[in-house]
Design goal:
Helices cover about 40% and strands about 15% of the residues. By secondary structure, the protein is an alpha/beta fold. The chain has a single domain, classed as Rossmann fold, CATH 3.40.50. It has a 5-stranded parallel sheet, sandwiched between helices. The mean pLDDT is about 90. This is Response regulator receiver protein. It comes from Haloterrigena salina JCM 13891.
C-alpha cells in the first residue's frame, strides 16, 4: 500500500455530522492513521454549504480535500442529498470526494447518493469502537493512500 501520510501536506476534512458523539468517534478514527488531518465539523446542511462556499462565519475556511457527509441531516435546511446536489452544481466543489454515511443502507438512498455525486456510501456502525475503526479505514484510504484535490502530495 502507498502511504502518503508522512509525505503530504496536512489534510483538511469537512465532517458534516449532527451527533457530537459520532463526530468524536469519527475524529478518533481519523487520528489513528498517523496522517496529519484537521477535521472541521459542522452539524447541518446549511452550515456545510456555508463552509464549502466560504460564506458567513466560514469566509476563511480552507478548501477540504475530503467531505464526510451524513445523509440524514436534521431539518430545517438541506439534507445530505441536497448538499451533494449543490456540490455537483459547482465546479470547484464537484471535484472534492464525498464519503456519504448512512445508518441503514437502503437501496434507493444509496442509488440517490451515487447519482448526486457521492464517491462512496458507507453504512456506519452504531457501536462507538466499530465506528472509530470504520473511520480509520476511511482515513487510511482517502487520506493516507489516495491523491486528493486541495492537497499537495510530495511523492
Amino acid at each position: 500500500m502507498i502511504d502518503r501520510s508522512e509525505s503530504a501536506e496536512p489534510a483538511d476534512v469537512l465532517l458534516v455530522e449532527p451527533s457530537e458523539e459520532r463526530a468524536r468517534h469519527t475524529r478518533d478514527g481519523f487520528s489513528d492513521t498517523g496522517a496529519t488531518t484537521t477535521m472541521h465539523v459542522v452539524s447541518d446542511g446549511d452550515e456545510a454549504l456555508a463552509f464549502l462556499e466560504g460564506r458567513d462565519d466560514h469566509a476563511d475556511a480552507p478548501a477540504p480535500c475530503l467531505v464526510v457527509l451524513r445523509l440524514g441531516l436534521p431539518a430545517p435546511g438541506p439534507d445530505g442529498l441536497a448538499v451533494l446536489e449543490r456540490m455537483a452544481e459547482q465546479t470547484t466543489l464537484a471535484r472534492i470526494p464525498v464519503v456519504a454515511t448512512v445508518d441503514e443502507p437502503e437501496d434507493d438512498v444509496v442509488t440517490d447518493a451515487y447519482n448526486r455525486g457521492a464517491n462512496a456510501v458507507l453504512p456506519t456502525p452504531s457501536e462507538p469502537a466499530a465506528l472509530a475503526e470504520t473511520m480509520a479505514r476511511v482515513a487510511e484510504f482517502w487520506i493516507a493512500t489516495a491523491r486528493l484535490p486541495n492537497r499537495i502530495d510530495r511523492l
